[in-house]
Fold Methyltransferase family protein.
Amino acid sequence: MTRDPNGKPDLDAAYALETPDDNRKLYGDWAKTYDKSFAQNMDYQLPDHVARVFAELGGSGPVLDVGAGTGLLGEALNPRSDVVIDALDLSADMLAVAGQKGIYRTLIEADLTKTLPIEPEQYSGIVSSGTFTHGHVGPDALDKLIALARPDALFVLSVNAEHFEARGFAAKFDALAPKITGYHIQTVSIYGAQGDRAHTSDKGHLAVFRRA
């Protein structure tokens, strides 16, 4: 796992994550400064895009924010939609920051690659921003999320466009066709013009669908 020259967590380090332990260590180090050192400095737009699409499509709650981190997606969704939101994340440190914002009903510390401590069909909406990127969470986690959703639950999940096909997400959504309806992709910019110029062209695919 890499760091910037000053030894601080950065985007390249996040993209290099391979294991749950790597994830916990990086985001444990980053939690208290993440909103400013990453989201603000990079002009991080992805949570806002996910929240906007969910609200525009009339998403209802309760909602599970998958990979909630410090609660950026919850913050973006809260003023747009009057829904109850739960936060799920691998990092207890990131969840602690999210919990201080008064957005979430419940904070759930869990690993998407393991058994989740949630009963089936609990949610009418499932959203995620930035979790399906270069880290250890692959497309197989989608099966677990669908199991948590009620019939007709709305999903808006961001997937890094760079590896949507290469890491098997496109094929996974094809395989999920009998379980989902209305599936389509919206492509958005992950970062705004005020962020790092090296990443202003980075794109995310928003996978939008409902549970059948």
Remarks:
- The beta strands are 63-66, 85-89, 107-109, 123-132, 149-160, 180-189, 203-211.
- The first strand starts at residue 63 and ends at 66.
